[in-house]
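User: Show me a protein chain along with its predicted structure.
Assistant: Here is one chain, sequence first, then structure tokens.
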Amino acid sequence: MTGIPVLLLEDRPAEAVWLAALARRAWPGAEVCHADCLHAALALVDARRDWAVALVDLGLPDGSGLALLHRLRAHCPQAVAVVTSIYDDDGHLFDALRAGAQGYLLKDQPEDLLLAQLQQLQAGIPPLSPALARRVLRDFGPAPAAATAGPTGCGAAAVQPVLSPRETEVLGYIGRGLRIGEAAALLGISPHTAAGYVKEIYRKLCIGSRAEAALEAARRGLT
């Protein structure tokens, strides 16, 4: 997938630069065309029909990226549309998939993971953040491993993982939007120690992003 035309819809300038660079790393020589609003992206689809990949943000100042997904499905069915978003709830995920998205990536994942997921397109593998992939599988029925997973494993969806008091504190700070260094300062611990707590929280909760951690913190009444 070299030299392919890529449509990037992202309204935040810094994130647009980052995603464009990520796309060029995933597909060397890619021709990335950036639109900073829905209107501009729709115009690009109307003017050009050979898009190979579209990286689509959902929350935009002039509308929803879902409109671009619908337009791509109608006019550029060959284009692989991948949502790049901070929204990790079921509503945004399943609305995007129904609108024609063939992948959904959370922007707050580690960059090397995002890069690997984009590169999977070359093998025909839809890029989907791991936590969201588990959610899709749950929506269509229990995964085969669910029956054999231990009581604290990721397959044991009915059992709420138990966090230590310090881990609960850290999760609460993440849920309020604090960064690891800020949480560490409030707790009187080193950022390295705080990062270790975050890693353990992610492992226990079977999550992979700050957005998922914030959602879990809200569910537990920590925010």
